[in-house]
Amino acid sequence: MDIKKIKNIKHTSSNNFFLLSGPCSIEGRDMAFRIAEEMVRISDELKIPYVFKGSFKKANRSRIDSYTGIGNEKALKILEEIGQHFDIPTVTDIHEVSDAEMAANYVDVLQIPAFLVRQTDLVVAAAKTGKTVNLKKGQFMSPESMEHAVRKVTDSDNELVMITDRGTMFGYQDLIVDFRGIPSMKKFATTILDVTHSLQQPNQSSGVTGGRPEMIETIARAGVVNQVDGLFIETHFNPAEAKSDGANMLDLKHMKGLMKRLIEIRQTINSF
Q: Its family (predicted)?
């Protein structure tokens, strides 16, 4: 799909990759606005097409006592407010069929989590809202099999579909990114690399997912070199205190420097 079709997305003529970025979860209005304000400042300065990301609910948790959110409507209204205040598109995850119509009233892009991308009813419900649908590739799925997930959207009369690779399971507690999959998935849809979730270390005995944030730049650079259309990077001004996925998020203070370096790589690749 042409990313220009995402409502309110800017800087589409810059020939940069586009960016989905924000906190893992909406923990409150002040934190969400703080992150959004800085990300808008960076994306405007560097001419990066930008979509603010924040989950209104965290349903895929390791333990029953894990943080899940501040309340569905409260979090969705914060996402809506951010979109309106900064005039930018927003994206959130959905987990149940009933979430699709509800979330579509507040955000511009509906994201299907990797664990759920084979759930036909969920994918079709997202597609039928008419919103852009971002399909996370299952950690257990081949890149080629994502063609069928894409067709579930397009066969539901919605051409606004993207794929996001977030790594493939490598044993029980690690993920790898197979960069051979990028050109395969680009044949089916606009393709994004989820840098931070690709560095998760799931299934820890503690019930809290680990991560390797020191590898964020390595994975992001490789994605840009291999011509992904977009990047997905979760960020927080204090990852150590984030209520979800802090172990693999990028500290917000490092975002601008990383983006500048990645843009230089992109410009080099574009010149070939």
A: Belongs to the KdsA family.
Verdict on whether the full-model pTM lies above 0.85:
yes
Quick count: other Cβ atoms within 10 Å of Cβ 237? 15
50-109 pLDDT, tens digit per residue, is 999 999 998 776 666 677 789 999 999 999 999 999 999 999 999 999 999 999 999 999
Rounded to whole angstroms, how far apart are CA atoms 258 and 270? 18
Dist. CA 232–CA 19, nearest whole Å: 6
Integer Cα distance of 18 and 134 in angstroms: 13
| Chain centroid offset of residue 7 CA | 17
- Domain enclosing residue 151, as ranges: 3-270
Contact (CB, 8 A) for 43 and 19: yes
User: In this structure, what CATH number is given to the domain that contains residue 124?
Assistant: 3.20.20.70
Cα separation of 198 and 213, whole Å?
10
Output the pLDDT for position 66. Answer: 72
